[in-house]
Amino acid sequence: MEAELEQQLIKIRVQASSKAPHQQQHAAMLLAVEETIKEQGAPAEPASYFAALLTLLEQQAGTGPKGLSGTIIYLLSIVLPGVSHLMLRAKFSTMMAVLSQSLDLGSADVALLRSVISCLETVLEAQDAGSWGLPISQGTFRSLLALSTDSKPKIRKRAQEAVSALLSRPPPPAVVHPAAQITARFVIDTLSAAKSDAQAALHILQLLKTTDMIWPSEEFGSLCEALMQLPKLNMPFVTTLSFQAIESVFSSATESLDEDQFRDLLIDIVDLKPNANDPLASEAWLKIIQKGYTAYAQISPDACFQSLPDLIDLIIPDIELGKPSTREAATQCIWATIRECIPDGMLGSAGIGQIIKTLSSGLSYRYRDSWALVFLLIAALFQRLSKFAHPAMDGILTEVANMRMEPEFELKNEADAVLGAAVRAIGPQAFLDVLPLNLGGEQRKDQVGRAWLLPMMKSHIRNAPLKFFVDTMLPLADSLAVQGKQFASKGREIEAKVFSALSQQVWALLGGFFNVPADILQSFTPSFGQRLAVELLESPDLRPTICGALQTLLVAVHTLANDDSGTGPLTKQQALAAQTHLAQFAPDYLAQLFNVFAQSPGANRGYMVNTITAFLAVITSADINATFARVCAMLDEALKTHKPPAAAELTERYLEAHAPPNAYTMMDLAIIMTPYLDTEHSLMLVRAAHMLAKQGEDQILQKKGYKAISRLAEQPAGSAAHQLIESTMSAQLIPMLIESAESVAISSRRERLSLIALLSRNLADDQLHFIPAMLSEVILGTKEANERARSVAFEALLTMGKRMAQGGAINMAAVTGDVSIDDDDDTPQQLANTEEFFKMIAAGLAAQTPHMISATIAAISRALFEFQSLLSMDFVVELLSTVLMFVVNNNREIAKSSLGFVKIIAVILPKDVLEPHLGEIVTSILKWSHEFKNKMRLKCRHILDRLVRRLGLDAVEKVMPEEHMKLLANMRKRQQRSKRGKEAAAGGQQQQQAETNGAAQAEAASGATTKKTFGNAYEDILYGSESELEDSDDEEPNTLAAKGAAKGKGAKVDRKNGNAQGSSAKVSGAWIKEDAEGPLDFLDRSAFTHFSTTNPTTKARRTPAAPKMKGGKFVFEDPEEEARKTAAAAAMAAAAAAQAGGEADGEDYYLQSLTSKDAFYHTPGQKVKFPKRKAGDDDDDVEMASDNEDVTAAQAKSAPAKRGKDNSGNAVGREFRAKKAKGDVKRGNIDPFAYIPLNPKSMKKGAVSVKGNSKKEKRVRNMK
Fold it and tell me: Which domain of life is it from (predicted)?
């Protein structure tokens, strides 16, 4: 029985104890059927279930209760997909007879009809083409079509799914489904009655939208005509769905319609263009146009192209006027038609000019909000026209460049994309003819410099003629460099740097011109090659550029020369000729590069290595070997006088400014050449590297020696270097590695371990003693501080294990060195296998140092994870028992590695092997349950969590000591919290996906808890889950994050949605940014740069006011003082207005808020400030009693009046206040200042400012 069917039956069987009656009935019926099959001795196959259920259904027909029939049909719908088609064809009539009785739409329930539909779909799908011609088949399918327009959503959806599935898979060998004719007539009849029954039309349009089939040609025209009539009914939903349905039926339009019919259909669709403000209908219409014209271009390319200019002219206003989604759909439609509907033979025709004119209109200010989309279309047109874009698109290219040059233009990146597409299409020469750089001394004043084009062109030049660079760009670079030197000689450093940078930018274009030019043979002349070599030697600033360009050229030519597909810019013959031509220059370039390499600092050599490697790939083997011989000779000379550099000369800062010793350089060059050496010269390198690896005076040379041998060992099998390594392994390499184990420098360990791993791959049987001899060093390497060294050590360990698993015999005497490998047959031998390999590793557990013991346990863990399937369970249990003794070791380093081992076995061991040792494991690790250092407590708890997941909480609880039960209870709480948090996060994420846009979905998804991975399964188990737990026993960070997401994040998203909805209702506006040059000229092409979609005044900073002249001196106004004066004046004006309005007896609370004890004011930056007061200042307000104080009226009267107030609390001099004027007036009375009482404290010595600028007097003046 199929696994999927079995899983469905299992789900039904467990429903026997369900509380739902229908589920209990399903389970009971299934168990009864299975019992019957078992009694009859039939196999438990889908055919047996089908026969039993069909028999029951026949017995129940017309007599049994509906519930029982419904249960049988439900089980049949599950079993039928697994029954063979031959059996379904044989029982077709029987099935149709019994199922047709259940299609009573008036009395059948939804669940029964859905099951019946599933059965009918499966049975009809199994029938051949002949069976579809039977009346019963056609009648059944008509019933499904009728159900596809049913008013009940679940029935309608299931019927539509069944019809779509049947029509999309016609019975072989038919191409058009036999029921397509019935479907087409039903659809046409339903759509024709759409005016009277719009609901049925909507349902049938939904069916058409989801059905992928080939319609019959005789009915296709009528179908399209019916669909085209629907938009004229002015029903929005019907119109949108009709467009979507037309889009879906276009898949069969090319097979069903001839050229004239297809053209007429497209014309009718174009005439139905909806309003751009209707996004649903517009997007559906645009998709139809895109799909239709793409198909029309395949039928009649020339006729399609003739109508393309008018079509683009019709669509492009949607980019201006439509909604954002409509704009994108219109852009996509035009982009697709430009790409698919312009034949190669029409690239230079007059119709292209009309398209260019239409797209050029998109650069007007009307399309300001859609310029990014217009730029995309212009770039697509450049790409399609290629070289034909020049001179046809020169005007639009100039216009885009002028827009790009405006200082405040915001779409510079989009404009650069257009210009880059133009460079790729027409080439740099034609591009610079249209947009000259205007650099150099010959530039006129009316010419605009375009130096900004140089960086943009760098990444877009492809397959351009090299001659243009040699004849035009190289002299320009020289001219700019000369001008820079002239400015430098005059002391004008800024100009000198500018022209020097321009010269380097011109040189930077060389990489693009070297990207497979077609004229390599003609333009890469000896003089040009010599010029590049001179620049390499004399111009350090140009070395990276020239080396990168040469590497690009050599790699591209070499790749094309070895490519047989012939799809590149050069044929294979042309590429071979170019490679031979470049190989002539290789020896001279290599000599020059070697000299520059030797003189360059060690930190700046990477690009030179890549260039040297590229040259080595194109020259002959003889030239390489000759060059290598010269390098070896220079290496010998350098080693004779070489002395290890001091520590200060090995620092990073020193190496950035100084070249390394010559011996280092020659060794590096020899290593670069290793893949191309023959046997003789490889042997020379092995001897030199052997000598350097054995010496211990210079660590760097020792490292390079190991590296050289490793590079030779890396070469593919069959190469000269690989054969040499195999021949010298027993006599030289293995003894050298064993003897030099004690003198290995720290910096050489990684390369040495890499060499050990490489040699261990292909050890012969008589060389297996190499593994136990090197194993202890590899084990210690797993604890190296350098991460890459640790990775190489683990790789070497696994390589040794794989070789041991292949079998063989180990000469143990060769390991100890007691006797020679070639002694007699009495030499002790040890069989090589995986268990023996583990025993060798486990010998390190008897070491004296904790470091070695810890490394051994780590090695056992890694090897056990890799080779567990090759070990017996008894051996694994023995390993487990041995390592568990080290878990309780007091040394933390040993215990940490042991806990890692336990974590591994908790995952990889089978449950039946793990359960008997559960108590021992739990007891051992609980020693560290209270240790915080090195995250020991976290590791312990994580292991317990792993054990609980695998064996269950009850099993762990049985072996848990009583004093640690709280830890288990805490773990149970954590699991429950984590589960609730995940459910809350999942629920919140689903809600956000339903209510928010794509950006909010990404934000919600990023907020969910993700598990960190480390690149391989072993590290995922060992380290990956520790971040899931925390040392806190109170709360879990994941739970807190989930709570935060459930409480606050949802509200935040809602607020975002509210803001988005609110902002969408706003009307977009524009602001004109004026300047001091006068009124804005709207007819100027640069006028658009003075428009802004945001208010520029909100971003403008306040400029300080110009100082005023007073008494011949500058007077600078304080902004805060001015703000306070303004506020006080406003308060006085408000008080005057209040008094004029009949509030003569009221208090001026606003004025008091500015002058009282608690006064404050606002600065121009809207910050709240409080006036500074001195210790002797009095309050300006009358002291008021609080509500809880019992103050009599007499006490209030006898209280001394404060300055500026009389006993009644009114302001002194209030009668002199003017109602309309800004200042005080006399109106025939005495001087109003004469009767304002003075504060005696202000009369003290030093209290009065001579200059009259005290803060109190300022406040008085402000009040005036």
Answer: Eukaryota
Q: Where are the alpha helices (DSSP H) in 1065-1147?
A: 1119-1140
Q: What DSSP designation does 655 have?
A: H
DSSP 192-214: HTTTT-HHHHHHHHHHHHH---P
Question: Number of H helices and number of E strands within the chain?
Answer: 62, 8
For residue 1088, pLDDT over 60 is answered with no
Helices (H), 543-640: 543-561, 572-583, 586-599, 606-616, 621-640
Place of tokens 């003609």: 522
Within 8 A by CB and 6+ apart from 1219, the residues are 1136, 1139, 1140
Place of tokens 């009573």: 104
Give residue-wise pLDDT tens across range 211-222: 888 888 778 778
Helix (H, G, I), strand (E, B) or coil at 610: helix
Cα 138–Cα 143–Cα 147 angle in degrees, nearest 5:
145
Distance of alpha carbon 86 from alpha carbon 1209, whole angstroms: 110
User: For 239-279, what is the HEC assignment?
Assistant: HHHHHHHHHHHHHHHHHHCCHHHHHHHHHHHHHCCCCCCCH
pLDDT by residue (tens digit) across 993-1021?
444 444 333 333 333 334 444 446 666 66
3-state SS, 80-100, equals HHHCCHHHHHHCHHHHHHHHH
Q: Report the DSSP pairing between strands 1108-1110 and 1091-1092.
A: unpaired
What is the pLDDT confidence band of residue 58, given thresholds at 50, 70 and 90? confident
Q: Count of residues for the chain?
A: 1264
Q: How far apart are CA 638 and CA 231, in angstroms?
A: 88
Q: Are 956 and 918 in contact (CB under 8 A)?
A: yes
What is the band of 507 on the pLDDT scale with cuts at 50, 70, 90? very high
pLDDT tens per residue across span 1024-1034:
554 444 444 33
pLDDT range class, residue 827, cuts 50, 70, 90: low
Query: What gap in Å lies between CA 1075 and CA 1089, rounded to an integer?
Result: 12
Residues with Cβ within 8 Å of 594's Cβ and at least 6 positions away in sequence, in order, are 612, 631, 669
Q: Which element (helix H / strand E) includes 1071?
A: strand 1071-1072
Contacting residues for 407 by C-beta, under 8 A, at least 6 apart: 1089
User: Using CA atoms, how far apart are residues 50 and 41, in angstroms rounded to an integer?
Assistant: 15
Token pair for 670: 């020899």
The residues, ordered by sequence, that sit 6+ positions from 480 with a Cβ below 8 Å of its Cβ are: 439, 440, 499, 500, 502, 503, 506
Q: Quick one: pLDDT at residue 1018?
A: 67
- Dihedral angle over CA of 554, 559, 564, 569, nearest 10: -60
What is the dihedral angle through the alpha carbons of 1007, 1008, 1012, 1015, rounded to the nearest 10 degrees? Answer: -100
